[in-house]
Design brief:
By secondary structure, this protein is an alpha+beta fold. The chain contains two helices and seven strands; from the N terminus they run H-E-E-E-H-E-E-E-E. It has a domain of about 110 residues. A four-stranded antiparallel beta sheet has the order 1-2-6-4. The longest helix is centred in the N-terminal third of the chain and has 24 residues. It is rod-shaped and about 125 Å long. The N and C termini lie far apart (about 75 Å).
Length: about 160
Amino acid sequence: MRPLSRRSTTVVVFTAVALGAAGAAWAAWGLTGSGTAEAKAGSVVTLKVTGAGLAAGGLTPGNATTVLLTVENRNAFPVRITNIDLTKLASSRAGCDAETNVEVVPDAPLPAQATVPAGRADEPATAQIAWSGPLRMKPDPADACQGAPFTFHVHLDAVSAAA
């Protein structure tokens, strides 16, 4: 084997250093990694009806009336109400049996604006919902029903309205 000249040695050393630097650079950029993560979905909070009543004028013989609802949402997403049920219609007035004198209108269309905005546990969002025509007084109600107070239970079904 012939001895390397000074120039050959310099070229060999320079090439080795350049290749080493290129290898180090490739190693610095060619990284990968993996691991395991964990997440938990939140839970929904039940909507709350904080107010329910009738439009001005109340129930009158033969006419349907608007039910006014105030709905509270503590969820971090908006909700769209898909169904409203009115049950347990009652009156405390003697001689005015609510179930005999007032009816729940079957399939009364839901209001177009039946969405409650997103809220928080410590600061719920509320919406006022005017539902036109779900209660109707019979055409010939008992005289004792004039000015009588009525109560009813409200049940809501809703879905997420998040975009």
